[in-house]
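dumping this here so i dont lose it
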């Protein structure tokens, strides 16, 4: 389903954004 792909993409973007914020916080 296209919706499943969209949800998966959003989940990946959210994870990457969280990791980026954590790295910025550490730095």
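and the seq i came up w/
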């Amino acid at each position: 389903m296209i919706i499943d792909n969209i949800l998966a993409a959003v989940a990946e973007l959210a994870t990457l954004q969280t990791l980026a914020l954590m790295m910025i916080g550490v730095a």
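The chain has one domain: 1-26.
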